[in-house]
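Supplementary Methods, section 5.1.

A reviewer requested that the exact input to the structure prediction be made available. We therefore reproduce it here, unchanged from the version used in the analyses.
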Amino acid sequence: MRTTIFTIALNLFVILGFAQADTTSTYYFAHSLISHQKTTSNQANIPYWLAELEMAVGNTCLTSGQFAPGQLGSSALPPEQTWSFYYPNNNHGSAMTPGSPYPVNAHDNVVLTYMNWQIIYDYGEQIGQRQSNEVSLATDSISLIFNWMKANDPIASLYLYECWPKIETNFILGGNNWNSSSGNPPDSIQWATYLNYALSKSNDFWTDLQDSLIRVGDFPNLKLIPSSLICSKLWQQGGVLDDFTATDIFEDQGPHGLASSYFLAAMVVYAAQHRHAPTKPFNSHLQIDQRILNRFDTLASFILTELSNFKFTNGGSRVWFEEQTMTTPNFKGLNNLIIYPNPAKDYVIVNTGDYFQKTTFTISIVNAIGQTLFEVLMDQQELKIELNTLGGSGIYFVRIHDDQGSLKDIRKLILE
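The structure derived from this sequence is encoded token-by-token as follows.
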């Protein structure tokens, strides 16, 4: 992973000595099942516990993100930095400065989730009854976001995050409601029904969505973090945590979790992104159920095994990047590349220096949502590109691929 100084905010972290051996930067398009703002302790969220797991091995965790899940599509763009966390151990920061434009090539990972009640709608109001269009609406809206990310942060690994399904009032709770102050939580039979739904139809939605985005949205390297699937296996009968009840995990039918459930989810995210099991960050913690800490090694081993077994029908991993398809952490760009004038009005000149003697390049210009507006094969040192067909003033990106199709550089172009 890249250890890079992204912004002034991160510069301050380095100056103050907060940067550790390795830095992982992640941007989240999320909702409250990733970061639950109702709590004042700031510990019912995945980034908090992910930072603790990173710190356990001497790493730094940078989090940027906003409450803008996948179904918002282009209205979630451009991405903003709207989260703020307080971490006493200073192992957590941000790759973005609040209020500033999205920084190109700022993140290692982009994680996007989708509203869990929307999953029920996409599958039909009777849970598990698929609509004919299935996940097409989700595919369309998420494609807008991921195309923007491909254009603006092409090095970042793209992930879907499988959130817990809603504890549906009629299907699970027999027409009742439940929250921490009123109503009855699921009894043992209802809890088993919920977990079975999470393990089957809800998980089907996420794998269908991943398949659809790869096939229709053209995201061949898109991966899926199966947090709900793995946690449900831990909680079901015979699982490592089958002595947990719904009230040990959730506080309402949202289902908004307690700190313990977000900690478990962070263990899954850590293992998915690092491809190895997390290290126990502490022996005891007031917010974490001690049973989880007592069984940490068993849980970590189980999570890693489940991730290893989470595969496509062709045997490829749904969650881990294979060596031949991984986005490279050594993306350095072309040092001698010059693009001018910038800002531009009528034309722009691309000069690749002496690189053109080694390979031919494909020069493309894309807009803010990743649509390719211009493309040409360049076999000379300098090329003048007329800009009158781009569609007006705004921010565009010049992308440079070599003759093997590898992305060699990307530069922002401002058209006045």
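The chain has two domains: 8-309, 338-415. These observations are discussed further in the main text.
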